[in-house]
Amino acid sequence: MTKLTKKQLKFCREYLKTSNAYQSAIKAGYSKAYAKNASKQILENRGIQNYIRGRTEKVEKQEDSTVDEVLKNIFKIASGKPIKRDFVQIDNMKKEITLKGVPKDFEVEPEMRAEYEENETTVTSAPIKEQVAAAELWLKFKGQLKNDSDDVEKQKIRKLKAEADIAEAKARILNDNGNDTEAKVSKYLDKLDEALGGDTNGTK
Q1: Residue 87's pLDDT is what?
Q2: Alpha-carbon distance 39 to 21, whole Å?
Q3: What radius of gyration, in Å, describes the C-alpha atoms of the chain?
Q4: How many angstroms separate the Cα of 117 from the Cα of each of 27, 88, 98, 109, 148?
Q5: In sequence order, what are the beta bridge partners of 87?
Q6: Nearest Cα to Cα of residue 137 among 148, 126, 123, 121
Q7: Which segment of 3-12, 115-124, 187-196 scores lowest on mean pLDDT?
Q8: For residues 77 and 131, is the Cβ–Cβ distance under 8 A?
Q9: Contacts of 43 (CB under 8 A, 6+ apart)
Q10: What share of the chain is helix, strand, coil (3-state, %, to 5)?
Q11: Which residues contact 11 (CB under 8 A, 6 or more apart)?
């Protein structure tokens, strides 16, 4: 690759910020007379073209990697696979003590927040509703949630959400009750689940 002069390098950096060849040439130190023809005299320089192309390609690759990570996470969530989650745990009692007497508009320093905040990381599957939302998004990306009929598409989404609600309700009730109730409730919810599937035949 052709080595650029400091002036050419400055021009490239300014041009990538503004896409204004004339102003970039002035900021880089070229004379106004020379800058008037910057689009031709400077931008057509092979070394400058290669530099600008290299910088844009680098950004494109970085963005592709970011997009890939987002898509991977959406797929993992939709599949119910464990994902890493970072969150802040706040001790409200300690917070109240720490901020006692501190004005409301005061910007709390990180050292003060550390007294009542704790960063935690978990590796678990997302809640069922998040899984359903991620599955819905993934299917849209894949073009599998589109249909000639808007009603049919809405029915699919309603079914996904209803299934999530049933699964959550079943888990909550089973955790709160004894074995006899578990059997009855489970049987009832299974029937409701079957009925839900029967109402939406032809929409899968």
Answers
A1: 76
A2: 6
A3: 29
A4: 47, 6, 11, 12, 50
A5: 120
A6: 126
A7: 187-196
A8: yes
A9: 15, 21, 49
A10: 65, 10, 25
A11: 24, 25, 27, 28, 30, 38, 42, 48
Q: Which whole-number Å values give the CA distances from 42 to 38, 109, 152, in the listed order?
A: 5, 49, 57
CA separation for the pair 174, 157 (Å, rounded): 26
Contact 131, 125 (CB under 8 A): yes
The H or E element containing residue 196 is helix 179-199
Any alpha helices (H) in 80-127, and if so which ranges? 92-98, 110-113
Q: What is the dihedral of CA 163, 168, 174, 176, to 10 degrees?
A: -150
Residue written as token pair 């508009």: 105
CA distances in angstroms from 155 to 144, 146, 171, listed in the order given: 14, 12, 24
- Is residue 109's pLDDT more than 60? yes
Q: Which amino acid is at 186?
A: S
Question: Residue 75 has which token pair?
Answer: 């797929």
Q: Which amino acid belongs to residue 95?
A: K
